Amino acid sequence: MIITRAPVRVSFLGGATDYPEHFLQHGGAVLGTAIDKFAYIAVSKRFGKLFDHSIRIAYSKVEQTSTLDDIEHAPFRECLRYCEIYEDVEVNYFANLPAFTGLGSSSTFVVALLQALKAYKGQFIQGIDLAYEAIHIERNILKENVGCQDQVFAAVGGFNVIEFRTERDIVVNRITLSAARMQEFEEHLMLFFTGIKRSAGVIVKKQLSRINDNKERLMNMRRMVDEGYNILTGSGSLVPFGELLHKSWMEKRSLDDSVTNNHIDDIYRTGLDCGAIGGKLLGAGGGGFILFFVPPENKEKLRNRLNHLHEIPIKINAPGSQIISTI
User: What are the residue ranges of helices labelled H in the chain?
Assistant: First the structure.
């Protein structure tokens, strides 16, 4: 049995510039981090002749089939096909957090699955090469409306500025901070679930249809990545980083009406009222998790005001996808 795990991510600045539809013409970059919440994949040999079916996959449901074409779950089906595994296999998926919540879980799943299936075949893949293959599967085989940051954070982990040049030329720049600075930054973060799950693909499709109209906004969001990096790696207050998050969210919510709604806006206003410096909705928009950048002395006030929402504690700078067990 091969067991892999890959982290989900929190994107702070530059989100939406990681789509080839934009960055191939104007460049793109994202400042973000892998966090300590993971997707897990376990792959093992199945003796198909002893069972009624030679393929068994388990996620929120269980599928048992004898051919790949009968698998309903498209990423499972096409990753198995891509790795040339056609029979006598069992694959199980489980995760710390649910899908459709803005943390890049769909791409994290593909990254962990691809690494596990490759290892099962005796092939070792990791890092940026793993990200490139996951991007290819999602964009070219599954035809998903996805960007390129989620796969990179899942594959390489860390706290990074990621520059997007082409789908096969992506540069990962590690953000190197002292332990004290990293802890100070992490202590300003609060993550709440809005209670809304949504399909990012539908929202992204709307945003991509307006990508030319939003060119200046997206280019401005790209410039904020450099500003954020300079704040983090400097020795001054982190307050300007929170203010930059707020500024970036104002740009992001203007990309399309589907990015936010009254419920999300109410949560965000509550955050600011309770002393948050800034924040943003994670992922494409429409729901999922909302992040606040909050001075530690204001956290309890915000926690009490949003006690109807589920708060998720997080650690940043998590490791990338890796094989954690072979049995």
Answer: 20-26, 74-82, 105-120, 127-136, 149-156, 179-186, 200-209, 215-233, 239-252, 262-273, 299-305
